[in-house]
Amino acid sequence: MLDANRTIGQPDKISLIFGRRVTKRFGDTLQTTIQDLHLGNPVIRTDYKKDSVKQYVRDHLLLRTEATSYHLPDLGVGKSVENLPKTRKILRQITERYLDVQQDILETFVDRGQLLRLSEPTVTSSGKRIPGLKLDNPRQLAVMQALVRFCHLAIGDSFTTKQIHLSVAQALGCPVNEHKLSSLRYDLSKLRGKGLVQKVPRSRRYQLLPAGYRLCVVFLKLFEKIYAPLTAGLLAPFPRDSQLSIPKMTHLDKLYRAIVTALDKLVQAVGLKAA
Fold first, then answer.
1. How wide is the angle at C-alpha 46 spanned by C-alphas 9 and 75, nearest 5°?
2. Distances (CA, A) of 270 to 2, 9, 11, 59
3. Tell me, what's the pLDDT at 67?
4. What does the alpha-carbon distance between residue 210 and residue 197 come to, in Å, rounded to a whole number?
5. CA dihedral of residues 136, 8, 6, 111 (deg, nearest 10)
6. What confidence score (pLDDT) does residue 275 get?
7. CB neighbour class for 238 (10 Å; exposed up to 12, middle 13-18, buried from 19)
């Protein structure tokens, strides 16, 4: 519930009261709080009576989890120096249980800004602005289509604009004389701006870098194998497809159908009503 609402409205602090009735025996607070103190990373704090567990990132690398008690009887321990080893053992167990619960609900598919940065303009050292990459730009996808051809791999990913001109035009479905070389160079500059393609020194040749090759394949497959067919299936499905039994479907169609079903479940899980 906290994660589902932390990005809506960009709040500085979110609290979730535990889903149970708080009686006098709980004493003070009983809640989990995510608070943005504008220090680069938010702080997560869980309070129970006069005890708490706090989590924060230190030095941009280390995730610290600290269990603290301001009233040892809450933990069943008396106030005495002799009870320090027992107190440390209990606090360690609390910390481990806290981390175990987080591990169970941890999501690794999170947006870390890479896709957004690829779509943003690139500003060169001379101050020139080069537009970013778009997932659905036909000319950009056509250039990527030409760059991942095997003939370039066989010669070390090296090519000239003239060598890929025909391939780009074919990918766009137009005669080569209708797609200008200046347009090709402009689209290629977007990939250079993101460090995916580099120019070979003292030559007119370019080289597709390993990260550039992988990203081109990802962009092409996302559009041609996922976004485009799924959009067509959602907005303009073939009427008789719904009458086809699952055993008679092709393996790929079964997978597409599974994705549509999973998307419906995902939309419901994040609190939206599926159309």
1. 170
2. 12, 16, 18, 32
3. 92
4. 9
5. 10
6. 47
7. exposed
- How many C-beta atoms surround the C-beta of residue 21 within 10 A? 6
What pTM was estimated for this model as a whole? Answer: 0.53
The pair of three-digit structure tokens given for residue 249, joined into one six-digit string: 């479907």
Question: Looking up tokens 């497809």, which residue turns up?
Answer: 241
For 268, the token pair is 């419901």
Residue 203 pLDDT greater than 50, yes or no? yes
Q: Are 22 and 29 in contact (CB under 8 A)?
A: no
In eight-state DSSP terms, residue 156 is T
Q: Which two tokens stand for residue 275?
A: 């159309």
Distance of CA 151 to the CA centre of its chain: 32
What's the token pair of residue 82?
């002799």
Closest among 57, 50, 63 to 95, alpha carbons compared: 63
Which helix H or strand E contains 100, and what residues bound it?
helix 84-105
Options 3.30.750.24, 1.10.10.10, 1.50.40.10, 1.20.1250.20; CATH of 114-225: 1.10.10.10
Q: Strands (DSSP E) along the chain, which ranges?
A: 13-17, 29-35, 43-49, 51-58, 62-69, 122-123, 129-130, 158-159, 197-199, 206-208
Parse the chain into domains and list their residue ranges: 2-105, 114-225, 237-269
Q: 53 falls in which pLDDT band (50, 70, 90)?
A: very high
Task: Say which residue the tokens 């393609």 belong to.
Answer: 197
